[in-house]
Amino acid sequence: MTNNAPGSTGDSEEKVTTVIADDLEIQGIMKFKSSLMIKGVLEGEIISEGLLIVGPTAKVAAKITTKNLISHGEIQGDVTASDRVILKSTSAHNGNITTPNIVIESGSIFNGSCIMKREEPVQTPDAVFFTETMVKKETVSEEEITEETEMKKTEEQKTETVWSNEDEYSAPKSPKAELF
C-alpha cells in the first residue's frame, strides 16, 4: 500500500533505512549504499549508490553523487545522479544537476544548469558490425563525386545567364527561349 499524502513519492520514501533527524548538524563526507533521509543540516559531500531524500526541513550544502535524489528541502551544491532527480514543490536547489532523468514539480525553485546525460552503451561486436556496414553504405566514392560535379557544371553552362544590352534591368534569357 502506498502513501498518497501530499509530498509523498510512494514506496521509495517508505523504504528509507537511515534518517538524519532534524535536530542534527553534520559536517564531512557521507558515504552509503542503500537509502538515507536527511531532515537536519549537512555540510560537505555525499556519495551514494542508492537513494538520497532531502526532507522538507533539511538544509544541505554539499557536492552530491548518488543514484536517485528526491528533494523536498534546500540544497546548495552540484548534484550528479546516475538514474533520476526529483525536485518536489517545496524544494529549493542552487547548483547544477547532471542526470538522465529529472522531474521538477511546479513550485520548486531551481537555480542552475541541468545536463541530461545518459551513460554510453557498451558496443557489442554485432553493434560495431552494424555501424561499420551503415557507414560503408553511406560512403560516396571519388568517381561518384567527380561525375556529380561534372553534371552540375554542364547544367550551369546550359542555364548561363544572357543579358540584353538594351536595358540593364531586363530579365535573363534562358537558352531554351532563344531557340524558338
User: Separation of termini?
Assistant: 87 Å
Number of helices: 4
Average pLDDT reading:
77
Q: Using the alpha-carbon principal axes, give the shape.
A: elongated
Structural class: alpha/beta
Beta-strand fraction estimate: 35-45%
Q: How many discrete domains? A: 2
Low-confidence stretches: 1-11, 164-170
Question: What profile does the largest beta sheet have?
Answer: 13 strands, parallel
CA radius of gyration is: 31 Å
Oligomer: single chain
Number of strands: 13
Order of helices and strands: HEEEEEEEEEEEEEHHH
- Helix fraction, binned, reads 10-25%
Structural descriptors:
180 residues; elongated; alpha/beta; 36% strand
Structural notes for this entry:
It is a single chain. With 180 residues, the protein is α/β, with parallel strands linked by helices. It has helices at 11-14, 125-138, 142-158, 175-179, and strands at 18-20, 25-32, 35-38, 41-48, 51-54, 59-71, 74-76, 79-87, 92-94, 97-98, 102-104, 109-111, 114-115. The protein folds into two domains: 11-115, no CATH class; 125-179, no CATH class. Helix content is 22%, strand content 36%. Strands 1, 2, 3, 4, 5, 6, 7, 8, 9, 10, 11, 12 and 13 form a 13-stranded parallel sheet that branches. Residues 1-11 and 164-170 have low confidence and may be disordered.
